[in-house]
């Protein structure tokens, strides 16, 4: 199985590569430090599986997964993250991931999950408080994955990472006017007017790493 | 004699991955893995590692407190802290607690190996991004100016907090009985000192430095006061 690893924690990623490469039936054929690099790696090496973190700069794992599945539906995505909130799991599932593991799993558990997903099955972490359905810090009445469209979340991450309207437009291949419109919609939907509040919201929702 | 390392991180697969990296080196041997700060202290006491690779964010005695207990105890073990945070407050806290090194999680495998070796030789290792920040802090300190003990002045911190809480220049000026021009000047100084150019970057800095909480909508009725 040919695997791409996407995580901004480089030493961890390199160690994970060693662990995976020690398996006879697996090989890491590409690496990425953010969502954009993950997309590039996928189109360059056409892996079977991508193991992806959520919290990455420029483009987070959820949005990257969505885009990977849109262009290369046959590539399977397994999420490996520190986040255990139900809404993150739901967002990843909706984005098309076939697996979701928390980083407190063992390496053998990850290997097993990769094989399982490679065989066409799903492997999702089950949080204990699944019945509650929402993260603990819910004080704004809805998660980013429910309230905003895919494109709006992409724009929000870039706003929260200090990019200008022009830079966002260039990066997403949109006109500046379209970006401004998205921005206005985001502010309206979230009831937030200030960049500072948008930045904090994006960080809290896991759209952008701190 | 290989360098004996104890790894402390609450995420199992992170421990395994770091172990795999460290074990590629002939001169390094991982003698134990633990998942809490408490276990790190106990493990150090029992096994006397040369280096403890310590994740700062751990439950049940966090990494900073565990670092403090280890470095103030009768152990020869050196602590190399690893963290997702690179803000000054965390770094200084770790160093004050007795850490011999600080790595950001974006560091490469090579850097982890290098840092482990440096720290085992009783020297200090800091990720270059951190070193840059601390040097800037140090170089900009003007001994004659007593108010310059922190990077930002009190007024600047106050204004930064308000910016990070969504206040406009006009609102800040009114609240603090300053002219808009003065507020703008302070804002420019803040941006220059922090080397940032946007409100979102200022907000991130303020959140990391705990100048403002991460919860949204913290604009409360502020009593008008001067600093």
Q: What does the model show?
A:
The complex is a heterodimer of chains A (210) and B (227). Chain A is α/β, with parallel strands linked by helices and 210 residues long. Chain A has two domains: 2-124, 3-Layer(aba) Sandwich (Rossmann fold), CATH 3.40.50.2300; 144-204, Orthogonal Bundle (Arc Repressor Mutant, subunit A), CATH 1.10.10. Chain A has ten helices and six strands. Chain A has helices spanning 10-21, 35-45, 61-71, 86-95, 107-118, 144-147, 150-160, 165-172, 176-190, 195-204; strands at residues 2-6, 27-32, 49-52, 76-81, 99-102, 123-124. In chain A, strands 2-1-3-4-5-6 form a six-stranded parallel sheet, with helices on both faces. In chain A, strand 1 (2-6), helix 1 and strand 2 (27-32) form a beta-alpha-beta unit. In chain A, helix 7 (150-160) packs across helix 9 (176-190) and helix 8 (165-172) crosses helix 9 (176-190). Chain B is an alpha/beta fold and 227 residues long. Chain B has two domains: 3-134, Rossmann fold (3-Layer(aba) Sandwich), CATH 3.40.50.2300; 142-227, Orthogonal Bundle (Arc Repressor Mutant, subunit A). Helix content of chain B is 48%, strand content 13%. Chain B has ten helices and six strands. In chain B, strands 2-1-3-4-5-6 form a six-stranded parallel sheet, sandwiched between helices. In chain B, helix 1 links the parallel strand 1 and strand 2 (28-34). In chain B, helix 7 (154-164) crosses helix 10 (199-208). The longest helix of chain B has 15 residues, at 180-194. Chain B is elongated, with a radius of gyration of 21 Å. Chains A and B meet through helix 1, helix 5 and helix 10 of A and helix 1, helix 5 and helix 10 of B.
């Amino acid at each position: 199985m040919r695997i791409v690893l996407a995580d901004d924690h480089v030493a961890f990623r390199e160690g994970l590569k060693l662990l995976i490469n020690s398996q006879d039936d697996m090989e890491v054929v590409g690496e990425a430090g953010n969502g954009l690099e993950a997309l590039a790696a996928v189109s360059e090496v056409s892996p079977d599986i991508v193991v992806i973190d959520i919290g990455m700069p420029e483009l987070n794992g959820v949005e990257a997964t969505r885009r990977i599945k849109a262009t290369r539906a046959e590539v399977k995505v397994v999420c490996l993250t520190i986040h255990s909130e139900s809404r993150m799991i739901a967002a990843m599932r909706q984005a098309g991931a076939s697996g979701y593991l928390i980083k407190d799993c063992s390496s053998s558990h990850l290997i097993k999950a990769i094989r399982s997903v490679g065989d066409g099955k799903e492997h999702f972490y089950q949080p204990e408080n699944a019945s509650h359905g929402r993260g603990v810090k819910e004080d704004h009445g809805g998660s980013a994955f429910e309230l905003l469209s895919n494109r709006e979340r992409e724009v929000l991450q870039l706003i929260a990472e200090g990019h200008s309207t022009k830079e966002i437009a260039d990066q997403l291949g949109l006109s500046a006017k379209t970006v401004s419109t998205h921005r206005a919609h985001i502010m309206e939907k979230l009831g937030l007017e200030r960049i500072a509040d948008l930045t904090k919201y994006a960080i809290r929702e896991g759209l952008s790493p701190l | 004699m290989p360098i004996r390392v104890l790894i402390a991180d609450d995420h199992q697969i992170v421990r395994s991955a770091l172990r795999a990296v460290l074990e590629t080196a002939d001169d390094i041997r991982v003698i134990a893995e633990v998942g809490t700060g408490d276990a790190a202290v106990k493990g150090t006491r029992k096994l006397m590692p040369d280096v403890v690779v310590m994740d700062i964010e751990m439950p049940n005695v966090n990494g900073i407190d565990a670092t403090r207990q280890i470095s103030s105890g009768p152990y020869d073990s050196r602590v190399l802290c690893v963290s997702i945070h690179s803000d000054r407050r965390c770094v200084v806290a770790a160093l004050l607690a007795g850490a011999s090194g600080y790595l950001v999680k974006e560091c490469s495998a090579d850097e982890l190996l290098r840092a482990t070796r440096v720290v085992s030789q009783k020297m200090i290792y800091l990720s270059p991004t951190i070193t840059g920040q601390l040097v800037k802090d140090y170089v900009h300190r003007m001994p004659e100016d007593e108010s310059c003990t922190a990077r930002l002045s009190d007024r600047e911190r106050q204004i930064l907090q308000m910016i990070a809480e969504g206040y406009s220049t006009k609102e800040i000026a009114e609240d603090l009985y300053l002219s808009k021009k003065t507020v703008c000047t302070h804002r420019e100084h803040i941006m220059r000192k922090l080397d940032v150019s946007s409100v979102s970057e200022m907000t991130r800095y303020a959140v990391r430095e705990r100048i403002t909480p991460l919860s949204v909508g913290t604009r409360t009725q502020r009593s008008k006061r001067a600093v």
